[in-house]
Design brief:
Layout: H1 3-9, E1 13-14, E2 17-18, H2 45-49, E3 55-59, H3 65-73, E4 78-83, H4 86-98, E5 104-108, H5 111-118, E6 124-130, H6 148-157, E7 158-168, H7 171-180, E8 185-190, H8 203-210, E9 216-222, H9 228-237
Parallel strand pairs: 3-4, 3-6, 4-5, 6-7
Antiparallel strand pairs: 1-2, 7-9, 8-9
Helix pairs in contact: 6-9
The structure holds S-adenosylmethionine.
Length: 254
């Protein structure tokens, strides 16, 4: 077998788009699952990663595609992904382990709880949130992640100058996000795809692009004129994420 063919065997693809890194010999595999979270928090980050480095967090990380890539491309940063669904975290950790990642951990954990309990204030360099679920069923609307109180926690958790990234393919959700996020962040909508991943940074972005859906992207730094208690007060005065999620889009999620 030629070297090129051997290498291709070790590169995985999803919808034809490669995952970063390659599957190593099992002797080089690592443990990226954070199986047991402390009962009360916060996480001891230097002990968890065995060093002190800028931390990049993906909330609702799904199968971990974005962090798997970032961990390869940014070895000087640590990475933590969380999702409420154990099955997607199993996919993410398997790939992280097989790539021998030492700067990557995944946990089954609710995003709001991760911010509220496990991540100390001003401890994270970047917080990413790709395609939070719009929840079409009225009985599930209260589960929508991007809310004023969630954003106040993101604001609290970022280091000064740290960045929040948010993206959705749901126009109703995006209208809400565009209205609320600038209250907490100096926010800029991004025109066009991410240059590091033109076919999509995440599984859901790849799917949305393949289906011809518009993808809305933005990022921003925490507003410096807001301290923690002002941000919390502000959150109480802002509307919850009630918007028309457009049920016609529902079948795309199934
Ligand atoms: C549409 S998927 C997007 C996954 C991934 N970010 C992507 O772009 O491919 C939404 C993900 O958010 C997760 N999720 C929903 N509510 C959550 C919560 N409160 N905390 C953490 N994850 C959540 C779901 O389990 C699901 O994996």
């Amino acid at each position: 077998m030629t070297e090129e063919r051997k290498k291709r065997r070790h590169i995985e693809r999803e919808f034809g788009v490669p995952f970063a890194g390659e599957i190593l010999d099992p002797s080089q595999w690592t443990q990226t699952a954070l199986k047991k979270l402390p009962a009360t928090g916060p996480l001891d980050l230097p002990t968890l990663f065995g060093r002190t480095a800028p931390l990049i967090v993906d909330l609702g990380c799904g199968n971990g595609r974005f962090l798997l890539g970032s961990a390869v491309w940014r070895p000087n940063c640590d990475h933590l992904g969380s999702d409420v669904l154990p099955v997607v975290i199993r996919y993410a950790t398997r790939r992280g382990n097989q790539r021998g990642s030492t700067n990557l951990r995944f946990a089954v954990c609710d995003a709001q709880r991760m911010l509220e309990v496990y991540l100390p204030p001003h401890s994270v360099a970047e917080i990413h949130c790709y395609h939070p679920q719009p929840y079409y069923d009225p009985s599930q609307v209260h589960l929508r992640l991007i809310s004023p109180s969630f954003l106040a926690l993101v604001h609290r958790t970022l280091v000064p100058g740290g960045l929040f990234f948010i993206q959705s393919d749901n126009p109703g959700y995006w209208r809400y996000i565009r209205e609320i996020v600038p209250m907490f962040f100096d926010f800029h909508e991004r025109i066009g795809r991410w240059p590091d991943a033109p076919k999509g940074r995440t599984r859901r972005e790849i799917l949305a692009l393949r289906r011809g859906l518009p993808v809305f992207r933005g990022s921003g730094t925490a507003r410096r004129d807001l301290d923690e208690s002002t941000a919390l007060h502000l959150a109480e005065s802002l509307p919850p994420p009630i918007f028309d999620a457009d049920r016609r889009l529902r079948e795309l999620d199934e």
